[in-house]
Specification:
2 domains; single chain; seven-stranded antiparallel beta sheet; Lipocalin; 151 residues; alpha+beta; 20% helix; 1 helix
């Protein structure tokens, strides 16, 4: 009887361990990005900022060229270049990368500095990017960035 109870408890513990392991694997898998992105963004302005640039998206083993454009209203003074790399999340179809991305962020770069941004478009696609910004620019608002697939 004691042997049977020990085997039952051992089997139950093994089943619980498998279930917990399965949950951990599924949560790690859901946290994985759908793709990666590299962006080169130029920005300049005095009160109204104008930005543009290009980049590449890696999604499902393929590389796609993207273009950037946008206008930000707010306290923008100076000019800068940012080279950003990061993850793309919630991307199910490559066309969903297109759209206007918004973020609420304050940034300052003087002759170089780290820049991070979390951006989201209306389709729910998220860009989590980081990198270096070179130049002299003070910007309180990074919004209105338009990202399109290069035709």
């Amino acid at each position: 009887m004691r042997k049977a109870l020990g085997k039952t408890l051992h089997g139950a513990a093994f089943a619980v361990a498998l279930a917990v392991g399965g949950l951990l694997v599924s949560s790690v898998a859901s946290a994985a990005p759908d793709g990666t992105i590299e962006l080169e963004l130029y920005k300049a302005g005095l009160v109204v900022g104008v930005s543009g640039g290009s980049g590449k998206l890696m999604f499902q083993g393929k590389q796609y060229a993207v273009t950037l454009g946008g206008v930000s209203l707010g306290a923008t003074i100076g000019a800068s270049k940012a080279e950003l790399v990061g993850e793309v999340k919630n991307l199910k179809n490559v066309a969903d990368i297109e759209g206007v991305y918004t973020a609420t962020q304050a940034g300052l770069a003087i002759a170089g500095g780290d820049k991070t941004a979390q951006l989201k478009n209306s389709k729910g696609v998220e860009l989590n990017v980081k990198g270096k910004q070179i130049g002299l620019e003070f910007s309180l608002d990074l919004s209105g960035m338009q990202l399109s697939l290069k035709k």
